């Protein structure tokens, strides 16, 4: 009980100390400081605050100014920064243009602390002790002034308390996030269950039927107690895709209505005799399945097309969006899907779209390059021209524009099955199916998309509906051969919303 109480008290101290830097006022004074947090950088998921990062310090209540600070150690002449960032209003920092620790004595392996006034003033810091001079007074005086003694104690204690409190708080948050939804399955052999749908006796989850199969395994409809869930089972050779997906689902702000809801990720012993472990990804289950499967057996009204297209674009916009935060555990980086297609868009019971399958997705952490990422990945039919050519600019925006090319193709699939067009609705066809068939090679797609610059054709019957005409313009700007000319996901979402409202008003 005492340990929990101490953890809560430490957490509150950190929130009070750090949170005041983020206080908002009508017209705040902002000081820019260098930001660093060794504790977060040494954690397994620490990405923000690991060097060359700045922080905006907003004035506290009553327009009290904010300053910058640095906490460091000097072990055998080796400087080691512990913390950098914003510091609350303090008279000792006012007017200090350089970050100096002026204490005349530092214990071995002790902490140095300095604060200063001005943008990025804590980018440089040093120890500059005040030289001691012999006393000339004949009368006895106290060795230290009371105020100086209090300041010394406070400034020596705050860094230690802050570091300890932050460590405990981060550890507490980390432990809460790691609480599993299901218990792990022992790796014992389960082959005695036979080839039927396995019911794992030591788990409250039952695989019911296979709903889809792909290159990364099978998707099962399953029961967990009384709830229906989806279980995507990865074979051993695709463990990396399983790791990528669960890591992306667990990023901050990924709990979104247009992103498939994540439940858990676990390792299991295969029910096939002699097989190695298989890897489960447990998510929400949606009866309608993928958009591709739904369009094969259903046609759409204009209102249904608008709802699906809006929610799909909103999900892609959220995926691409970078959500900054002053707290590293709330920062969401931009994410490129890299295999966007109608098979990876699922439909809920009300035809709301949600995006799934992040096995090839790429996360763009600030200040980091894409690394050794292979550019030519995804489904050939939906590959952008620059992907087919192998001529990708390995930047964040370049990968996001590849998703937008595929988004234009999915919008074409929706329009082709919409009743807003005149005449009979044709059977469902994949993009470029008329040009390259159902199983195109990479060379087929290069010839069609890169050399001939072909795109899926617009039917004459679409010209009878103003909404479809406007949607065709949006498609063309999504799949433009020049990647830099393509629309962003937010722009697509705004356009579709406006087009649908226009049609609603006209009726």
From TrEMBL:
Entry-linked Gene3D superfamilies: CD59, Phosphorylase Kinase, domain 1, Transferase(Phosphotransferase) domain 1
Task: State one molecular function term (GO).
Answer: metal ion binding
Task: Specify where it is mainly localized.
Answer: membrane
| Signal peptide region | 1-23
What cofactor requirement does the entry state? Mg(2+); Mn(2+)
Name the Enzyme Commission number(s) assigned to this protein: 2.7.11.30
Q: What class of enzyme is it?
A: transferase
Q: Which GO terms describe its biological process?
A: cellular response to growth factor stimulus
- Keywords from the named record: ATP-binding, Kinase, Magnesium, Manganese, Membrane, Metal-binding, Nucleotide-binding, Receptor, Serine/threonine-protein kinase, Signal, Transferase, Transmembrane, Transmembrane helix
Q: Enumerate the subcellular locations listed in this protein's record, separating them with semicolons.
A: Membrane
* Residue span(s) of domain Protein kinase: 205-507
Q: What Gene Ontology terms describe where this protein resides (cellular component)?
A: activin receptor complex
From the UniProt record, list the reaction(s) this protein catalyses: L-threonyl-[receptor-protein] + ATP = O-phospho-L-threonyl-[receptor-protein] + ADP + H(+)
- Keyword hit for Chaperone: no
Tell me the membrane topology, using the record's own terms. Single-pass type I membrane protein
Protein name according to UniProt: Serine/threonine-protein kinase receptor
């Amino acid at each position: 009980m005492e340990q929990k109480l101490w953890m809560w008290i430490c957490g509150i101290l950190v929130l009070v100390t750090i949170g005041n830097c983020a206080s908002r006022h009508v017209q705040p004074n902002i000081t820019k400081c260098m930001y660093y947090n060794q504790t977060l950088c040494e954690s397994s998921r620490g990405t923000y605050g690991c060097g060359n990062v700045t922080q905006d310090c907003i004035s506290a209540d009553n327009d009290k100014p904010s300053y910058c600070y640095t906490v460091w150690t000097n072990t055998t002449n080796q400087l080691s920064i512990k913390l950098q960032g914003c510091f609350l209003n303090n008279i000792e920092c006012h007017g200090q243009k350089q970050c100096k620790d002026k204490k005349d004595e530092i214990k071995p392996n002790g902490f140095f602390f300095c604060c200063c006034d001005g943008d990025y003033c804590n980018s440089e810091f040093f120890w500059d002790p005040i030289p001691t001079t012999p006393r000339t007074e004949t009368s006895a005086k106290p060795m230290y002034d009371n105020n100086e003694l209090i300041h010394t104690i406070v400034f020596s204690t705050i860094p230690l308390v802050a570091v300890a409190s932050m460590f405990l708080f981060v550890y507490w948050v980390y432990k809460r996030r790691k609480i599993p939804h299901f218990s792990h399955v022992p790796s014992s052999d389960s082959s005695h269950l036979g080839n039927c749908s396995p019911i794992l006796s030591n788990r409250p989850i039952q695989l019911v039927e296979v709903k889809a199969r792909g290159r990364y395994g099978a998707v099962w409809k399953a029961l967990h107690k009384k709830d229906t869930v989806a279980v995507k089972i990865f074979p051993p050779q695709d463990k990396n895709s399983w790791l990528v997906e669960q890591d992306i689902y667990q990023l901050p702000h990924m709990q979104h209505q247009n992103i498939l809801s994540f439940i858990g990720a676990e390792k299991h012993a295969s029910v096939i005799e002699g097989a190695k472990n298989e890897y489960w990804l447990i998510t929400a289950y949606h009866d309608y399945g993928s958009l591709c499967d739904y369009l094969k057996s259903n046609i759409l009204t204009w209102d249904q097309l608008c709802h699906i297209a809006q929610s799909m674009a909103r999900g892609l916009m959220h995926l691409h969006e970078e959500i900054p935060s002053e707290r590293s555990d709330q920062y969401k980086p931009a994410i490129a899907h890299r295999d966007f297609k109608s098979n990876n868009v699922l439909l809920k019971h009300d035809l709301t779209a949600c995006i799934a399958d992040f096995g090839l997705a790429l996360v763009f952490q600030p200040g980091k390059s894409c690394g050794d990422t292979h550019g030519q990945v995804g489904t050939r039919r939906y590959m952008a021209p620059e992907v087919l050519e192998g001529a990708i600019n390995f930047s964040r925006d370049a990968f996001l524009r590849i998703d937008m090319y595929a988004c234009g193709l999915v919008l074409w699939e929706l329009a082709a099955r919409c009743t807003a067009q005149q005449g009979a609705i044709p059977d469902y066809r994949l993009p470029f199916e008329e040009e390259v068939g159902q199983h195109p090679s990479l060379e087929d797609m290069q010839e069609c998309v890169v050399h001939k610059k072909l795109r899926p054709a617009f039917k004459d019957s679409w010209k009878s509906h103003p909404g479809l005409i406007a949607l065709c313009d949006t498609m063309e700007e999504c799949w433009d051969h020049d990647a830099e000319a393509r629309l962003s996901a937010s722009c697509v979402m705004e356009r579709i919303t406006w087009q649908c409202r226009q049609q609603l008003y006209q009726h």
